[in-house]
Amino acid sequence: SVILLLTVLIVCGNLVVIFVFHCAPLLSQHSTSAFIQTMAYADLLVGVSCLFPLLSLLHRLQGLDPRPFGYTVSVLKSVSMVSLACVSVDRYVAITRPLTYASLATPCRLRCCIVLIWLYSALVFLPSFLGWGKPGYHGDVVEWCAVEWHTRPAFTAFIVALLYAPASFTVCFTYANIFKICQQHTREISQRQARYRPRPLQGAASGEAERGPPPLQHPAPAHHQQQAHRDKRYATVLFRITSVFYLLWLPYILYFLLESGGIYQHPAASFLTTWLAISNSFCNCLIYSLSNSAFRKGLKRLCSFC
Fold first, then answer.
1. Would you tell me how many other CB atoms lie within 10 Å of the CB of residue 143?
2. Domain count, the chain
3. According to its UniProt record, where is this protein located (predicted)?
């Protein structure tokens, strides 16, 4: 029942995200929307793939080769992880190079980047499909994998070195610098506002003309403040998605390392860590819907069509 509920939540949640992006043009103004939609499609397919473990528990898929299924799910989860890393890089470039960002993040380059995400994910897990190591699902999730597919320490180290470690480092580096830059912008804007704050007018008896701040200097701080606030707010939303992603995936990665090294192995721990990682496919759409005002407006617009 838990697997069935999680499957329904993942599929329905990501379908809503995909439809909202198509119904809300404002969301598509950000280049990161391309990566968010890619992640939504990958998470949707992960939800569909949850039907296979459900059928396995009902003993309806005995005797089938587990490699195509395990390979496909591993590629989908890799796409989500790499997409989050690309989102963090995109926001880092947008904030550090605002003047040249439009020329750097062109639609053609974004499409090429998305193709490379899928290609890289497919190539990273290709050795497991050819017999070197076991990818995503453990034997207790898809029952018949337990005997036919064994974890190998070398393959685990290979995946950590080419996928988990680079993605984690990229996300930590970019978001640490993003929030550092946002704090710096906030301090600069506060200093400008204090500098251009109008002074009290002197009385008419003094004979001095009324003086105010230069007329063209007020809009600039206000404009920069709004832009900095939008950048920080959008970065915060994406940081929440990324933080939840790694919090849910960390137990799975740790268990994957312990199991491959022969240090610890337990069916219940394998089941819980695996499905905890899979539940992230639903958390992404939940966090985005609760944190992004433009997404909520698009969701209301979608509901009005129903």
1. 15
2. 1
3. Cell membrane
